[in-house]
Amino acid sequence: MSRHREILVLAAIFLAGAAIAQTAEPLALGSNRELFVDSYLVGSLDHAELRLHSPETRETVLHFDKPWEGAFCGYTTIIHDGELYLLYYRGLPVAGADGSKTEVTCVALSVDGIHFAKPNLGIHRVWDTLDNNVILADDAPYSHNFAPFLDANPEALPEQRFKAVAGTSSTGLHVFISPDGIHWKHLREEPILTGGAYDSHNIVFWSPVEQCYLCYFRIFADGVRAVSRTTSTDFLNWTEAVPMTFGDTPKEHLYTNQTQPYFRAPHIYVATPARFMPGRKVVPEAMAGRLGAHSGYVGDCSDTVFMSSRGGSVYDRTFMEGFVRPGFGLDNWTSRTNYTTYGLIPTGPATMSLYIQRNYAQPSQYLQRLELRIDGFASVHAGYGGGELITKALTFAGNELEINFATSAAGSLWAELQQPDGTPIPGFTLDDCDELIGDQIDRVVTWKGSGDVSALVGTPIRLRFVMKDADLYALRFRP
């Protein structure tokens, strides 16, 4: 092929690709808040990147120091119910077989998600006392992985506002119900799911977007611990489980999944699984003894990673690096530590919290709070030299463009609305845009003092962001 003909062929391919891109069905955003946890919105990046943000370490919120708690407490869940936060966890002072009679389910309460107290409930007698915070006992094996959730299904009965699943491979997953999250009972004698291992945290929630209950649980697939998903419209009858896919990424052991709808954008599910590294030993035997670590829990290590999903059987793993590292020292390099709590909650006007177990299998095990900015899992980031993001073609329903962003004192951000072919829309060009400087979760973009974009509702457009030393975390067209 001649050089001239080769150039013509390449030009034709390029133009064909451009035509396809321009005629592709635009994304229908409506008024949804969109986070940059994946490439869903991204059309192109120029000297900019998608960047994962690790949470900040905060205070210890709970010590597992009661006789019925101990070094092997685990599978924690936090639920925000009105003005109350309920924190659930397994109490287990001595390691044993999954589902042993020594396991109990405990609860701690808080009004701010930061300071927790263990109530004396008087429901069960354990360790010869009724003065305890135990909500489930003498009901093996269900305390092993008791996983409650607040049912967001608008048709949920008042006496079943709280639901939970628990069980092992021998029992299948059983259902518990409660009107208040404290007093629980079996829904029925039969399990709702069978045939799985069910030996770790089995996550269930109501999806307002998919209009069904979802259950995510651990499986073995291709030699590694992975995740399957099943759905139900009535919580009792479930579809055949489907293994989740992870795109073209390296296979890794994911011991838990902690998948949940993000509370500000429930069409996006975020997940903070424990990445388990079997046989990757960091703690020397001699040091394990000094830590008080159980001898069977020093041969592996684990950390927390971040994933997302927009429904169906697909996880997005744009970010393979650690979301929460084990950290300095050897305490958190023992096996099965650094597992996050199921549940992500707002704890301030611009912050949210998640929680992580530290020092597992050690007498010093505790629960630590981690903090992120609202929507702040990831961002489009541009450095001091500047960069650009151009979105895919989209339509919206709303009156104003709201962004969650941050810049340095020298940084800035500008926005432009374009036609799908890249032509700037008059009145919404970069030259018209008022410079954005600062750190806000709900800043309205304006052009010559006006933020009104309602004239473009339903019209396919693209967004162009020009950024310098700035991060763009989320956007939406608000009503």
Provide the descriptors you would attach to this structure in a database record.
globular; 479 residues; 8-stranded antiparallel sheet; 32 strands; 4-stranded antiparallel sheet; 2 helices; mainly beta
Protein architecture, described:
This protein has 2 helices and 32 strands. With 479 residues, it is mostly beta strands. Strands 2, 3, 4, 27, 28, 30, 31 and 32 form an 8-stranded antiparallel beta sheet that branches. The chain has a 4-stranded antiparallel beta sheet with strand order 5-26-25-24, with no helix packed on it. A hairpin with a 4-residue loop joins β14 and β15 (212-221). The radius of gyration is 25 Å and the shape is globular.
What is the structure about, briefly put?
The longest helix has 21 residues, at 3-23. The protein has helices at residues 3-23, 285-291, and strands at residues 27-30, 34-35, 42-46, 48-52, 56-63, 74-81, 84-91, 104-110, 134-136, 147-150, 162-166, 174-178, 185-186, 203-207, 212-221, 224-232, 242-243, 253-254, 260-262, 265-271, 274-277, 301-304, 307-309, 345-348, 351-358, 366-373, 378-382, 387-391, 394-396, 400-418, 439-444, 462-478.
